[in-house]
Automatic annotation (TrEMBL):
<protein>
    <recommendedName>
        <fullName>peptidyl-tRNA hydrolase</fullName>
        <ecNumber>3.1.1.29</ecNumber>
    </recommendedName>
</protein>
<dbReference type="InterPro" id="IPR023476">
    <property type="entry name" value="Pep_tRNA_hydro_II_dom_sf"/>
</dbReference>
<dbReference type="Pfam" id="PF01981">
    <property type="entry name" value="PTH2"/>
</dbReference>
<dbReference type="InterPro" id="IPR002833">
    <property type="entry name" value="PTH2"/>
</dbReference>
<dbReference type="GO" id="GO:0004045">
    <property type="term" value="F:peptidyl-tRNA hydrolase activity"/>
</dbReference>
<keyword id="KW-0378">Hydrolase</keyword>
Length: 242
C-alpha cells in the first residue's frame, strides 16, 4: 500500500471534510440487472476509478480522490433510468458494464468524489431507495483461482447497500496489493466474483488475515458489522491457507 492511498487514523478521518464516491446503477423497469451482476459491476467500477490516470498524480480527479480517502471512505449508490440515466451519463465519470453482450447487463457509472453535501443536481435528485434486485438463477461457484468478495451470510442488505459494500471490499484489496499485483489485476480487466459466504465458513474468513470491511453504521446495519471479506489470490499468499 503506497503512502498516497493509505487511510489516515480514524480520528483524523472523522475530523477531515467528508466526501462520498457516487455510483449510479441503471435500473430500467422492464429490464433490471441481476443482483450479483450489479454487485460485481459496482466493485469493478470502484477499481476502475482508483486506477484511472485522472485519479492519480496530478490528474484532474486526483485531489478529490485524495480528499475522499483522507476521510471516511463513503460510497452511495443511486438508481437511474431513461432520461435520468442519460443526464447522469453526461457528467464526468466512467461507465462500467458487466458482460456488454449479455441481456440485461448491469451498468454502473462511477463519478469523482464529491463533498457529502455537494452532490451535482443531476445526481442529487436520484433515488437511493428502489435498488431491490434479484438473481433469476443462483450464481454458480466462483473461480477459486480468482478474486472473490465474500458477502456476510448473516446480514440483510438492499442491493444498493450491498453494491457499496462490495466496492469497499474491492478497495481494501486494492490498497493491500503490491504495485505489480495491481497492474496485473488492471491489465486482466479486474476479474472478480461476489458471492455470499457459506455460514459455516464466515468466521474462518473474517479471522484469516484477509481485508475485512467493517461498516460505519450510517445506514441499514449496525456499526462495526463485518460485511465483506476481500479474498484476492495475491493476498491469500500472505495469509494462512483457506
Amino acid at each position: 500500500m503506497s503512502s498516497q492511498d493509505s487511510p489516515a487514523p480514524a480520528d483524523l478521518r472523522d475530523a477531515a471534510p467528508q466526501y462520498v464516491l457516487p455510483l449510479v446503477v441503471r435500473i430500467e423497469k422492464a429490464d433490471p440487472p441481476a443482483r450479483t451482476d450489479a454487485l460485481e459491476t459496482a466493485a469493478r467500477a470502484v477499481l476502475v476509478m482508483l486506477s484511472d490516470a485522472r485519479a492519480q498524480g496530478e490528474g484532474e480527479w486526483a485531489q478529490a480522490v485524495r480528499d475522499w480517502q483522507d476521510a471516511r471512505i463513503r460510497k452511495v449508490v443511486r438508481r437511474a433510468r431513461g432520461a435520468e440515466w442519460r443526464k447522469a451519463s453526461g457528467l464526468p465519470g466512467i461507465t462500467v458494464t458487466c458482460r456488454p453482450d449479455a441481456p440485461n447487463a448491469a451498468e454502473v457509472r462511477v463519478f469523482p468524489p464529491v463533498p457529502l453535501d455537494g452532490w451535482p443536481k443531476e445526481l442529487a435528485k436520484l433515488q437511493v431507495s428502489g435498488t431491490e434486485l434479484d438473481d433469476p438463477q443462483e450464481p454458480g461457484a466462483p473461480d477459486p483461482s480468482g478474486p472473490v468478495l465474500w458477502m456476510s451470510p448473516g446480514l440483510d442488505m438492499s442491493a444498493g447497500k450491498a453494491m457499496a459494500q462490495a466496492g469497499h471490499g474491492a478497495q481494501l484489496a486494492w490498497w493491500d496489493l503490491s504495485e505489480e499485483d495491481r497492474d496485473a489485476w488492471r491489465e486482466a480487466g479486474f476479474p472478480l466474483s461476489v458471492r455470499t459466504a457459506p455460514a459455516a465458513r464466515w468466521r474462518e474468513l473474517t479471522t484469516s488475515g484477509l481485508p475485512v470491511v467493517r461498516d460505519a453504521g450510517f445506514t441499514e446495519i449496525a456499526p462495526g458489522s463485518c460485511t465483506v471479506v476481500a479474498d484476492h489470490p495475491a493476498l491469500r499468499r500472505l495469509t494462512r491457507p483457506l
